[in-house]
UniProtKB/TrEMBL annotation, chain A:
<dbReference type="Pfam" id="PF00384">
    <property type="entry name" value="Molybdopterin"/>
</dbReference>
<protein>
    <submittedName>
        <fullName>Uncharacterized protein</fullName>
    </submittedName>
</protein>
<dbReference type="GO" id="GO:0046872">
    <property type="term" value="F:metal ion binding"/>
</dbReference>
<dbReference type="GO" id="GO:0008137">
    <property type="term" value="F:NADH dehydrogenase (ubiquinone) activity"/>
</dbReference>
<comment type="similarity">
    <text>Belongs to the complex I 75 kDa subunit family.</text>
</comment>
<dbReference type="InterPro" id="IPR015405">
    <property type="entry name" value="NDUFS1-like_C"/>
</dbReference>
<dbReference type="InterPro" id="IPR000283">
    <property type="entry name" value="NADH_UbQ_OxRdtase_75kDa_su_CS"/>
</dbReference>
<feature type="domain" description="4Fe-4S His(Cys)3-ligated-type">
    <location>
        <begin position="1"/>
        <end position="31"/>
    </location>
</feature>
<keyword id="KW-0411">Iron-sulfur</keyword>
UniProtKB/TrEMBL annotation, chain B:
<dbReference type="InterPro" id="IPR038532">
    <property type="entry name" value="NDUFS4-like_sf"/>
</dbReference>
<keyword id="KW-0496">Mitochondrion</keyword>
<dbReference type="InterPro" id="IPR006885">
    <property type="entry name" value="NADH_UbQ_FeS_4_mit-like"/>
</dbReference>
<keyword id="KW-0813">Transport</keyword>
<dbReference type="Pfam" id="PF04800">
    <property type="entry name" value="NDUS4"/>
</dbReference>
<dbReference type="GO" id="GO:0022900">
    <property type="term" value="P:electron transport chain"/>
</dbReference>
<comment type="function">
    <text>Accessory subunit of the mitochondrial membrane respiratory chain NADH dehydrogenase (Complex I), that is believed not to be involved in catalysis. Complex I functions in the transfer of electrons from NADH to the respiratory chain. The immediate electron acceptor for the enzyme is believed to be ubiquinone.</text>
</comment>
<dbReference type="GO" id="GO:0005743">
    <property type="term" value="C:mitochondrial inner membrane"/>
</dbReference>
<keyword id="KW-0999">Mitochondrion inner membrane</keyword>
Length: 529, 153
């Protein structure tokens, strides 16, 4: 204890780690109340690790946890130990930023205040914070998190242990997106007037206008798009509302015109995230786990024994399907081969052909058995799986082109160029504070004369139970009952266009992260090529 | 004074008895509804009698602290009505239970928390507790002989 504290500064009153510091706890329990060290304390120059991690290197006790995390879990050899004796220090050797998507975790790992959160620096003390345990929505992984708030304000996000999903890590996007919650919010309903400006109105007027518009158009011209951050309750209400009005053109963004919601195994991670560790060969198709789901990437990395083949287009995939590629023998020899398909492929026209090629591969590699299901789809957006579970699939593929009335429930990433210019709009942002989306839809249904039969959260959940009971089993993974073996064969041809990237910018993928200043800094500094 | 007290007691009792009868008339129901004794007797306002609560065990902190305080069970009242009071900038709430769960209620076991919630007539859901998976690891394994080196393909 005395040796540890010898070179550790007495920073506790001005240190962000104060109150949740392992060294502080230890010295409170076992430490002496006075030191015998009379020399000068050593000082170490602070390192610049980027916009997320603040360093005060004199506080470092050289436990090397951050170094081991970076090399073993995050897979970047950025940090290391330099020098020896009292000159020993943690650093990047040359001035360099930490480029990992998981770099924020070194803040949690550091047992002292050497690595702390830069955006959270001097904002609050941890004993003032109230934690709310919840689930992350910035990607489709669903990392377990705790949101710490002080009063009504979100102050920080920290991970929560869940061995089946995120272990104890979260990605930087999850951890630091919270300042986006505080900017660019829609607090009141607004209607665009004749002069083209938005004017705040009261809810009753807004709903009346929307209901009137919805009745002006034909039922099949009504289109509903649920945003990527929508909750299952709102999506259920949206689908019920549109169905009651006579339209069935409702989907969730990210799923595109994908209409395969019949077989759950076609859109979920069948082997489970934790199950990926059992795999011994990976075939990644049209996906970049590092940016699409950084936590899943860490899992795959953990299973380092596996060999990976990342083809660059449908040609390679076809070669593997026809067993002409050297990788097919790897798949054949593997005991638990895992195929991971990116959800970016949902947007492609030749999706069915790609999936049937993958199914051929899965069949000959014996990837789907009773004890192992290695056919995985890696979704991109938080709401996607629930939307497909609830059956939010468009009736016709080109519904958006003939739409006259579009209900965008927090959907920001819909390509609106195809919508005819004379369409009447109803855009509703995700960030209406204090009002749940399903309540708005419920109110709208009453104004529009197609009243939905639920008034409470309990009632809407029992409605969900009749459609997709698995959604209500919180914290439980519901495996798919049927695999693709009962799916009809597709005869379509694959397009030879290469698979695009589904996520261009890891740090900005939805309305919250796009509004976040920290994420903007990250993309400016870390994605600089 | 004494008579009014007795009167109050009989009133509370008859209230409970009427409740019991009301529940017993539905005795063929699949789920047996429990009488929220404590809730009724302690004079808790009607709108707070049957609340939805979540029983959970707080996760270990993400930072590297010891695990001495882990394993307790808490009741969360799912209260979200909070605002910044314009007078002083303090946080106000319209929910009398807003700070009760975190500050006042802590249980040794899941069952104790459930029993407490039942006594008060709260409709609860229990969140699963996540515990770390301990894998046996040894530093020496890094240097273990793993067979002849495989030839690179």
């Amino acid at each position: 204890m005395e040796f540890l504290l010898m070179n550790h500064p007495l920073d506790c009153p001005i240190c962000d780690q104060g109150g949740e510091c392992d060294l502080q706890d230890q010295s409170m329990a076992f430490g002496s109340d006075r030191g015998r060290f009379t020399e000068v304390k050593r000082s170490v120059v602070d390192k610049n690790l980027g916009p997320l991690v603040k360093t005060v290197m004199t506080r470092c006790i050289q436990c090397t946890r951050c170094v081991r995390f970076a090399t073993e879990v995050a897979g970047v050899q950025d940090l290391g130990m330099l020098g020896r004796g009292s000159g020993e220090e943690i650093g990047t050797y040359v001035e360099k930023l930490m480029t990992s998507e998981l770099s924020g975790n070194v803040i949690d790992i550091c047992p002292v205040g050497a690595l702390t959160s830069k955006p959270f620096a001097f904002k609050a003390r941890n004993w003032e914070l109230k934690g709310t345990e919840t689930i992350d929505v910035t990607d489709a992984v669903g990392s377990n998190i705790r949101i710490d708030s002080r009063g009504p304000e979100v102050m920080r996000i920290v991970p929560r242990l869940n061995e089946d999903i995120n272990e104890e890590w979260i990605s930087d996007k999850t951890r630091f997106c919270y300042d986006g919650l505080k900017r660019q919010r829609l607090n009141d309903p607004m209607i665009r007037g004749a002069d083209g400006r938005f004017k705040p109105v009261i809810w009753r007027d807004a709903l009346a206008v929307v209901a009137e518009m919805a009745h002006k158009v034909k039922p099949e011209e009504i289109v509903g798009v649920a945003g990527q951050l929508s909750d299952a309750e709102s999506m259920m209400a949206l689908k019920d509302l549109l169905n009651k009005m006579g339209s069935n053109n409702v989907w969730c963004e990210g799923n595109g015109s994908n209409r395969d919601a019949d077989l759950r195994s076609g859109y979920i991670m069948n082997s489970s995230i934790a199950g990926l560790e059992k795999a011994d060969a990976f075939l990644l198709v049209g996906t970049q786990p590092r940016v699409e789901a950084a936590i899943v990437n860490a899992r795959i990395r953990k299973t380092v024994l596996a060999k990976q083949a990342q083809g660059w287009g449908p040609d390679t995939l076809l070669e593997i399907a026809e067993r002409r590629h050297p990788f097919s023998s790897v798949l054949l020899n593997a005991k638990n081969p895992a195929i991971i398909v990116g959800a970016g492929l949902f947007e492609r026209k030749d999706k069915d052909a790609i999936f049937s090629a993958l199914e051929t591969i899965a069949k000959y590699a014996n990837a789907v058995r009773l004890d192992w299901n290695g056919f995985n789809v890696l979704l991109l957006k938080a709401a996607q799986a629930a939307a497909l579970d609830l059956g939010l699939v468009p009736e016709s593929e080109n519904s958006i082109e003939s739409a006259k009335f579009v209900y965008l429930m927090g959907a920001d990433d819909v390509n609106l160029e195809k919508v005819p210019a004379d369409a009447l709009w109803f855009i509703k942002g995700i960030m209406a504070t204090g009002v749940d989306d399903w309540k708005i839809i419920r109110a709208l249904s009453e104004v529009a004369g197609v009243k939905l039969p639920y008034d409470t959260l309990g009632a809407i959940r029992s409605r969900i139970k009749t459609v997709a009971p698995n959604i209500l089993n919180i914290d439980e993974r519901e495996p798919a009952t049927f695999s693709f073996s009962i799916k009809p064969e597709s005869t379509k041809k694959m397009d030879s266009a290469p698979f695009g990237t589904a996520v261009d910018n890891f740090y900005m993928t939805d309305s919250i992260t796009r509004a976040s200043k920290i994420m903007a800094q990250c993309s400016a500094l870390l994605l600089k090529k | 004074m004494a008579s009014s007290l007795r009167h109050g007691l009989t009133k509370a009792r008859s209230h409970i008895l009427s409740r019991t009868r009301w529940f017993s008339s539905q005795s063929d129901a699949l789920v047996e509804a429990k009488i929220p004794e404590v809730g009724i007797i302690s004079g808790i306002p009607e709108q707070h009698l049957r609340r939805r609560v979540v029983i959970y065990s707080p996760a270990r902190t993400a930072s590297q602290q010891g695990s001495g305080k882990v394993g307790k069970w808490k009741i969360n009242f799912l209260s979200t009505q909070k605002w910044e009071n314009p007078l002083m900038g303090w946080t106000s709430t319209g929910d009398p239970y807003a700070n009760v769960g975190d500050a006042g209620l802590s249980f040794e076991s899941e069952e104790a928390a459930k029993e407490f919630a039942e006594k008060h007539g709260w409709e609860y859901t229990v969140r699963k507790r996540h515990t770390p998976l301990l894998r046996v690891k040894s530093y020496a394994d890094n240097f273990k002989w793993k067979g002849l080196p495989k030839s690179e393909e």
